[in-house]
Amino acid sequence: MAMGNLWKLFTDATRGDAQQIATVRDRTETKYTVEMSSGNYTDVQGQGSYETGSKVFIKGSQIIGQAPNLDYTEIEV
């Protein structure tokens, strides 16, 4: 089986912005301020009405949908 260019295979697999979960902290008409799991705040665009405190999926600088409101636990190994 031919593998091809390994760097191209890697970049194709990791291309694009990663989808992340954030918490809505503030809202104007279509601009939202969200808190990422790292604690950083960023402004994103979104269609729809997401309530303050709700979890959303972020890709790039866009809200792409509602996320389930699950607890986040980080375990250091």
Form type: extended
Strand content: 35-45%
Element string (H = helix, E = strand): HEEEEE
* CATH class annotation of the domain at 18-66: Mainly Beta
Major sheet? 5 strands, antiparallel
Q: Using the CA coordinates, give the radius of gyration.
A: 16 Å
Q: What is the average of the pLDDT values?
A: 87
How widely separated are the two ends?
A: 37 Å
Number of strand elements: 5
Low-confidence runs? none
Strand order of the largest sheet: 3-2-1-4-5
The amount of helix comes to 10-25%
CATH architecture of the domain at 18-66: Roll
Attribute tags:
SH3 type barrels; 77 residues; mainly beta; single chain
List the helices and strands and how they pair.
Blueprint (H helix, E strand, L loop, with lengths): L5 H8 L5 E9 L3 E6 L4 E5 L9 E5 L2 E5 L11
Antiparallel strand pairs: 1-2, 1-4, 2-3, 4-5
How would you describe what is shown here?
The protein has 77 residues and is mainly beta. The chain has a domain at 18-66: SH3 type barrels. The protein contains 1 helix and 5 strands.
Briefly summarize what is shown:
The chain is mostly beta strands.
